[in-house]
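Quick one, T. Sequence first:
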Amino acid sequence: MMLVGLLALLPPLIADGVPEALDAGTGVWLVLSGLCNVAGLLIVYAALQVEKVGIVAPITSTEGAVAALIAVAAGEAIARGTGLALAIIVVGVVLSGIVRSAPAEHGHGRRGALLALVSAATFGLGLYATARVSSDLPIAWAVLPARLAGVVLVAIPLAVASRLRLTRRALPLVIGSGLTEVIGFASFAFGARHEIAVSAVLASQFAAVAAVGGYLLFGERLTRMQLAGVVLILAGVATLTALTA
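Structure tokens:
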């Protein structure tokens, strides 16, 4: 997936060339963005090995709130009404990410939940780093770090070990996910040029989108809690839209 995304980024990267604003400071944010994305993925996969999806998913989906808190701590001002709307959206995101899971075969206490919390913090820091890069460099450069890190640290080692396999059935899904992730990160980076906190929280709605997509495409049933989460998200987004109109 990261390899597909990297290939998709090559044309705009070549067209932009090396930005004049690329210096040691932006370089640190670039490295942090790439490493946090890969590390967050590895941590959340480790959490899923020892804990149920219904616990890991909602905790991990708070990454947008983490990025928003970092932005506020770094000095970004948020109006009281906007902060309340963002809080409502975060609660909705968490609720929509709670899914039914089969009982775990082995218990590991709070280890899985703790790993999920660490992954949320890691992803949140990565989102903030991406936002910082986007304010100084072209969008393609802001999207580059995660894809480059994924290829260098995951894809190439797997290929060298002859463990990089791709089935014909999975090919269109891998290509689609690679391209849509680039579009998603580019959209977030563009929005973050205006307000990092708002963009980060709105970008973290993947749990709700996945839940609704599962209902519409695969006939999966939404729990009452997930429906409540979706309603809260809609209410929060509507309020946020009214406040920023």
